[in-house]
Automatic annotation (TrEMBL):
Species assigned in the record: Aquimixticola soesokkakensis
Entry's transmembrane regions: 62-79, 86-106, 112-130
Cross-referenced InterPro entries: MAPEG-like_dom_sf, Membr-assoc_MAPEG
Keyword Membrane: yes
Family annotation (PANTHER family): BLR7753 PROTEIN, INNER MEMBRANE PROTEIN
Localization: Membrane
Keyword flag Heme: no
Listed name of the protein: MAPEG family protein
GO cellular component: membrane
Swiss-Prot/TrEMBL keywords: Membrane, Transmembrane, Transmembrane helix
């Protein structure tokens, strides 16, 4: 397995952990009566600001994870794996790990810069696969 695919697996585990933490926080805030329901109605209680941010950070990673996975797969399948592409994959994972508290605690403007670093890593993985 290439280093990029190993980092992809770690990013997948991070994604699952992020979902677990955000879901737990939502369950605490909204109660299991609501979170286990079909959610046909609005919740009777509000979530804490941090919980809502954790859920948005998770949704944001859901949107970006496919790009990262595609970049890692392209680099690995085309035999373009290198120290550079491994560093890009590691940058993505580190940025996404940093993005969680950055979003949860409202670190402005750093959250946006961290997000941009992860996106740039994905774009550069695609470019590396084309070389």
């Amino acid at each position: 397995m290439t280093p990029e695919l190993t980092i992809l697996a770690l990013a997948g585990l991070m994604h699952i952990a992020q979902f677990g933490v955000a879901s737990y926080m939502a369950n605490v805030d909204l109660g299991p009566g609501y979170t286990t329901s079909p959610r046909d109605r609005a919740p009777s209680r509000e979530m804490r600001k941090t919980t809502a941010r954790m859920l948005r950070a998770y949704d944001n990673h859901t949107a970006m994870f496919g790009l990262f996975a595609a970049g890692c797969l392209l680099v690995s399948l085309t035999g373009q794996s290198s120290g550079w592409t491994t560093a890009l994959a590691a940058l993505y994972l580190i940025a996404r790990l940093a993005y969680i508290p950055a979003y949860a605690f409202g670190w402005q403007p750093w959250r946006s810069y961290i997000w941009l670093a992860a996106l740039a890593a994905c774009a550069l993985l695609f470019l590396a696969a084309l070389v």
